[in-house]
Amino acid sequence: MQSKTQVASDHVRGWILDAYPSGPGKIAVWIITENGERIKLADNFQPKIYVSAKQDEIERLVSRLCTAAYCPHGISRTSTRTPQMP
């Protein structure tokens, strides 16, 4: 089984074998190429979640996230308007 590590920069064609956080703000993805080679790609990664709720519920969620062992940095609020259905 051949394996190598590289930084994500080239095109790779294959199947995703595994993906996991590899450090703060980092992600590792293992790919099995079409010819069976195993390649580990590494890159910066900042996960995002989008929440729709009442303002007090959003504030409670942010408060809970920031009191956990890991406080996500870069929490920001985006306001959008959902069109009303007729």
Can you walk me through this structure?
The model has no long low-confidence stretch (mean pLDDT 78). A hairpin with a 2-residue loop joins strand 2 and strand 3. By secondary structure, this protein is of the alpha+beta class. It has a domain at 3-44. The radius of gyration is 19 Å and the shape is elongated. The chain has 1 helix and 4 strands, in the order ββββα. The protein has one helix at 55-67, and strands spanning 3-7, 14-23, 26-33, 38-44. The chain has a 4-stranded mixed β-sheet with strand order 1-4-3-2, with no helix packed on it. The termini are far apart.
Mean of the pLDDT scores?
78
Major β-sheet profile: 4 strands, mixed
State the helical fraction. 10-25%
Q: What is the number of helical segments per DSSP (H or I, 4+ residues)?
A: 1
Structural class: alpha+beta
How many angstroms separate the termini?
59 Å
Radius of gyration: 19 Å
Spatial strand sequence of the major β-sheet: 1-4-3-2
Runs in which pLDDT lies below 50 for 5 or more consecutive residues are none
Outline, from the CA principal axes? elongated
